Amino acid sequence: MQVFKFGGASVKDAGAVRNVGEIVKRFQDEKLLIVISAMGKSTNALEQLTEACYKQTGNAKKIFDEIKSYHDQIIKELIKDIHPHGFDDIENTFIELECLISGIPEGEYAFLYDQIVSFGELLSTKIVSIYLNQTGIRNRWLDARNFIHTDSTYREGKVDWTKTTQIIQSKLKPLVEKQIIITQGFIGNSPNNNTTTLGREGSDYSAAIFAYALDAESQTIWKDVAGVLNADPKRFKDTIKIDELTYNEAIELAYYGATVIHPKTIQPLQSKSIPLYVKSFVDPSASGTTVSNAPHDLIQMPVYIVKGDQTLVSISSKDFSFIVEENLSKIFEVFASHGIKTNMMQNSAISFSACVNTEDDNLKALQEALANQFNVRINKGCELFTARNVRSVQQVEYVKDKTILLEQRTRSSIQLVIQS
Ligand code: ASP
Ligand code: MG
After folding, report:
1. CATH code of the domain in which 94 resides
2. What domain range includes position 334?
3. Which of 45, 187, 261, 409 is the most buried (most CB within 10 A)?
4. What global pTM score does this model have?
């Protein structure tokens, strides 16, 4: 039993979906569960739709129409002689979404977000499933919300592992034995039966949850790159593919911001020694990257990771007290209560600096909460640059013309907060 995950880029248009069909055809006789993301950038569009709907900007209908016509175009190109039930199903899904956005929104933003944004995955899987069946690749569409159970933390559902594993084992496993299953990434079900999502780019994680609970032989993530590279090819020249990684190395790379694998994906696989293959959907027979426990020489090549959209927060005390335990614990408490995650931090006697994701509303609130006791400086427009397996970063082209605001070294990495 294998688990495949196809991301947004692999289903971004009709040609891409046909290519998915070609890949799946090679594995037609295997026991396969396929997890699919929303098509192309449609999650971003659905985020805009949520915003428009929540703030009642009057734009919602226009954004909805754009999302619909994007999908309609793909359907038109792919699905010819369709069983009428297939079309009805997709049409109904759009009607459901339209109803949802037409009313006055109830509840919190995060709740509404999950109810709307989840439509991206529902639509993409329905389209792909119908297309594959039409081309002779027999498969069954299933709603992931029947299997992935979370708490009610909207936009970042925490998985109920006991319930999820038990249901997947008892209800889903026998179905995967029988035929190819197509289901959604990213979405789950709350205890009171509302849709939740697992956090942006969460489909890799969904696939890992399924792989874990099914005791799969392997998980494969099909990407538009050759595998895990030593740097992001959009930012660096001459990147090199990493053939093998241990789970721990992969966790670290993902944690520092290598977007090729979602950070939560690895641990469920690691705990059952399920290998993860990252492969190219453009060149499916190429070897890609294998993440496993297999003993190998630790990677020696330099690895560069850039995490964008960062803000440097610098905090010093107003009363000239040192930034030691007592002050630090206050600062961390405020960070935690505002849901601000630090990606790197450093402290000296008189100041504390943290590099965090830029989230304007939360940062403003953080600044206000600390303002009584501390001077807080906010420096937006930063990037967190991490280099591994290098002695120095002086020669690295990418950082040469940038201002370095903060630098930190450990035995295995050099991290810089930089600004252009
Ligand atoms: N469609 C979701 C997103 O774009 C989940 C995923 O692609 O993994 O964030
Ligand atoms: Mg996506």
Report:
1. 3.40.1160.10
2. 303-419
3. 187
4. 0.89
pLDDT digits (tens, 9 = 90+) for 350-404: 899 999 998 877 889 999 999 999 999 999 999 999 999 898 988 889 999 999 9
Domain assignment of residue 30, yes or no: yes
For the chain, the domain total comes to 2
| For ligand 1, atom 2: residue with the closest CA | 201
Tokens for 294, please give them. 């297999």
CB–CB of 31/174 below 8 Å? no
Last residue of a domain, one of 216, 246, 274: 216
Residues with CB under 6 A from ligand 1: 7-8, 37-38, 43, 120, 185-186, 200-203
69-101 pLDDT, tens digit per residue, is: 999 999 999 997 666 555 678 999 999 999 999
From 201, 210, 259, 264, mutation site for ligand 1 pocket: most ligand atoms within 8 A of C-beta:
201
Cα 186 to ligand 2 centre (Å): 9
**Cα–Cα distance for residue pair 65/78, rounded to 1 Å:** 20
Residue 249 lies in a domain: no
d(C-alpha 88, C-alpha 101), whole Å = 20
